[in-house]
Amino acid sequence: MAPTTELTILKTDTLGRREPTSPEQREAWLDAFERTSMSGAAFARLHGIRYTTFAHWRKIRRQQRQADKNKPSVFFEEVEVRRPDPVAVGLNISLPGGATVTVTQAEQFPLVAALLKYLDCAC
After folding, report:
1. CA–CA distance, 83 with 46 (Å, rounded to integer)
2. What is the average pLDDT value for the chain, to the nearest integer?
3. Integer Cα distance of 86 and 99 in angstroms
4. Which long-range CB contacts under 8 A does 46-51 form with residues at least 24 apart?
5. Scanning 3, 46, 53, 86, which has the fewest C-beta atoms within 10 Å of its C-beta?
6. pLDDT-based confidence at 72, cuts 50/70/90?
7. Is the dihedral of CA 97, 62, 11, 36 positive or negative?
């Protein structure tokens, strides 16, 4: 049986303990919350979720999104440049948005390093 991601009200026992939720269910609640204009407390109350638990789920999601956003988006590819100089090599750098920088001489590395440092601050 496939797991369901329908929004439900969490059931509690007489001691106030709630049934465990799957990651898919938590994501479904967070997705639904982001589509509403409700406060976090009101949304949690409506679905029978303790507000502190719901706030923790939201914090984890924010941290995951921030970590995903901070992942490097510059990719390096080593290429061989065919020149009379036997020690010449090249480096292709693919930048966000499809731009590519090709470095063929050692003197160009400081300039490319400055560019990458600038783009890291600008992105």
Report:
1. 69
2. 77
3. 28
4. 47/7, 47/8, 47/9, 47/10, 48/9, 48/10, 48/11, 48/12, 48/18, 49/10, 49/18, 50/18
5. 86
6. low
7. negative
Q: At what angle do helices 51-69 and 40-47 cross, to 10 degrees?
A: 120
**Beta carbons of 77 and 94 less than 8 angstroms apart:** yes
Can you tell me whether residue 77 is helix, strand or coil? strand
| Type of residue at 109 | F
Mean pLDDT, rounded, for 34-43: 92
Cβ–Cβ under 8 Å, residues 59 and 52: no
Q: In the structure encoding, which two tokens stand for residue 107, read together?
A: 């003197």
- 85 vs 102: CA distance, rounded Å: 17
Q: Which long-range contacts (CB under 8 A, 24 or more apart) does 26-34 make?
A: 26/57, 29/54, 29/57, 30/57, 30/58, 30/61, 32/7, 33/58
- For residue 81, what are its two tokens? 């440049």
